[in-house]
Specification:
heterodimer, A: 99 residues, mainly alpha, Arc Repressor Mutant, subunit A, 34% helix, B: 378 residues, alpha/beta, FAD/NAD(P)-binding domain, six-stranded mixed beta sheet, 9 helices, 30% helix
């Protein structure tokens, strides 16, 4: 399964992406966290980017010479942590679309 | 001031595929303007299904041609779009929809589509894990499929750029003025003059149309969707039910992605996620696929359907408005029907080629009152 070099630096553990792979996406023209996420799946796994997002922001910053504070984080999406469907079934159903 | 032969507004599947087909037809001095990043609107938020099982003749014919495009697209564009010909399974729960399904199948078969009518107990031969409780019948088309919307958008954009076209991202159109035979488009990057302007702005199309004085009969609505953690591959077809009001499929990486409509959804541009959807859709998913009860949901989000009065898109020009074209109102089916529609529109723009599709999906149908509503919609 794993074809990564032995000394590869893993950036996104959920989706198994190395620093070199992230750099390749940046070189292909994906310059923001949102685009890199969609192209590579970095940050789409169980942890929702909690580990890799800051690391990828640093790689973008270094590679493109953009100050770290100018790199926009991707939209945070619910749920905060993965929830089993059977646990959601216990929540109270309500007739609202207000939120 | 930048001068272009044509400008497309909107960088979703429709805009990028149109950019590619215009360039392939020889029109290369073309610019695409996107307010955010490519695929940031409905395309990058959609379910990714590619279906030919429709209720109107024109949609079936269009979708069959569209499916051919997807089946060969990775090779044509030189990037993998994760096309998977896993079929579409459509369970039916009510007598009204069962009658419609029988009518649909008859029409689909007449048009050459391979589609099966299944009894509830026959569904397990396609998806053993599906719970057939309350199902009256199901239809199944093995040549339907799904693909990765992000990768498809990126593949079209890269191929279009390689042919010499240009894309401006993070660039929101501020205003559009008619100057002689040109449109002058004001953006934060530069002002662009073009004799041909195409509105492919998806959920934002009404705003663009208003800038040139057109009131579109379309309305944006939020649709919500979620994805589970990846599980071992077990599900080939996309499963959709129009009366059960749900759809889901297994992605290339193993996650189950799915959603439902909401009849109480108010119109408007809204991308927020609701707890209501998370709970309601979990109930539907757990009932249809009990095996997924232990699987965890990791993310939910929302996108826009731009609904047209007959749930079919509007494309082509408008009488009396020279140089303006639109390809809008896909009503939730822009990903699957976008590429073929863009290809037909490109042929119309560059070569004046009129097909039955250009006539059928013209804006004029609302003026002439000849609309036939597509009913196979979630």
């Amino acid at each position: 399964m794993n074809d990564k070099p032995k000394d590869a630096k893993i950036i996104c553990r959920c989706e198994d992406l190395t620093e070199d792979e992230i750099i390749k996406y940046i070189e292909q023209g994906y310059h923001t966290l949102e685009e890199i996420k969609r192209a590579s799946r970095a940050g789409m796994g169980h942890c929702q980017g909690r580990t890799c997002q800051r690391l990828i922001a640093q790689i973008i910053s270094k590679k493109l010479g953009i100050p770290l504070e100018n790199i926009k984080p991707p939209t945070a999406r619910p749920p905060v942590k993965p929830i089993p469907i059977k646990a959601i079934l216990n929540l109270k159903r309500k007739d609202t679309t207000q939120d | 001031m930048t001068t272009k032969d044509a400008v497309i507004i909107g960088g979703g599947i429709v805009g990028v595929s149109l950019l590619y087909y215009l360039a392939r037809n020889g029109m290369r001095n073309v610019l695409l303007i996107e307010r955010n990043y490519l695929g940031s609107g409905a395309t990058g938020r959609c379910g990714g299904g590619i279906r030919q099982q429709w209720s109107t003749e024109i949609n079936i014919k269009l979708a069959m041609l569209g499916r051919e495009i997807f089946a060969n697209l990775s090779d044509e564009l030189g990037h993998d779009i994760e096309w998977h010909s896993g079929g579409y399974l459509i369970p039916v729960y009510t007598e009204e929809f069962a009658q419609q399904a029988r009518k649909n199948i008859e029409l689909q078969r007449k048009l050459g589509l391979e589609v099966e009518l299944l009894k509830p107990e026959e569904i397990k031969s396609i998806v053993p894990q599906f719970n057939p409780a309350d199902v009256i019948l199901a239809t199944y088309c093995p040549t339907d499929g799904h693909a990765n919307p992000f990768k498809t958008v990126f593949a079209y954009a890269k191929a279009a750029q390689a042919l010499g076209t240009e894309i401006w991202e993070y660039c929101e159109v501020q205003s559009i003025n008619r100057k002689g035979t040109c449109y002058e488009i004001l953006t934060p990057h530069d002002t662009v003059a073009t004799p041909i302007l195409v509105n492919a702005a998806g959920g934002w199309a009404n705003i663009i149309a208003k800038m040139i004085g057109i009131e579109l009969p379309t309305t944006p609505y939020r649709h919500e969707i979620l994805v589970t953690e990846p599980v071992e591959h077990f599900l080939d077809p996309l499963i959709i039910s129009f009366d059960g009001d749900y759809y889901f499929r297994q992605e290339h990486n193993g996650g189950i992605v799915g959603g439902m409509g909401n009849p109480d959804e108010p119109p408007g541009i809204n991308h927020r996620s609701s707890l209501h959807f998370l709970i309601e859709f979990s109930h539907k998913l757990a009932k249809a696929m009990p095996i997924l009860r232990d699987v965890r949901i990791i993310r939910q989000w929302a996108g826009l359907y731009l609904m047209s009065p007959d749930s079919q898109h509007i494309m082509g020009d408008i009488n009396g408005i020279d140089g303006y074209y639109q390809i809008v109102g896909f009503s939730g089916h822009g990903f699957m029907l976008g590429p073929i529609s863009s290809k037909l529109l490109a042929d119309y723009i560059t070569d004046g080629k009129r097909s039955e599709f250009i006539d059928a999906f013209s804006y004029r149908r609302f003026e002439e009152g000849t609309i036939q509503k597509e009913v196979s919609v979630v």
